[in-house]
Specification:
This protein is mostly beta strands. It has one domain. 0% of the residues lie in helices and 24% in strands. The protein has no helices and six strands. The strands form two sheets. It has a four-stranded antiparallel β-sheet with strand order 3-4-5-6, with no helix packed on it. Strand 4 and strand 5 form a beta hairpin. It is globular and about 30 Å long. The mean pLDDT is 91. Bound molecules: zinc ion.
Length: 85
């Protein structure tokens, strides 16, 4: 198995000087945005009860981002994210 991206250092999204996020796909909070997601791939409110994963999902590419380290932990198809309406 050979990963396309380096396995030495985890991929991270970038944070600009205003604290805004930019995903590797180019998405920003003001574009498609980033939303808290649970382990059922459902968008949730960021409360201790509902949000147990500490992950945000990029709604453009489906990368899941650890909110503390900004590391991309995995990627899921955006179509599998169940968005709150
Ligand atoms: Zn993205």
């Amino acid at each position: 198995m050979k990963a396309v991206e380096s396995t030495q250092a985890p991929s991270k999204i970038t944070e600009n000087s205003y604290g805004g996020w930019e995903c590797l796909c180019g998405n920003e909070a003001t574009a498609y945005g980033f939303y808290p997601i649970n382990d059922q791939n459902e968008e949730v409110e960021p409360t201790p009860d509902e949000w147990t994963t500490n992950l945000y999902a990029c709604f453009q590419c489906g990368r899941l981002i650890d909110v503390d380290s900004l590391e991309i932990v995995r990627q899921i198809p955006v179509s599998e994210i169940r968005k709150a309406s």
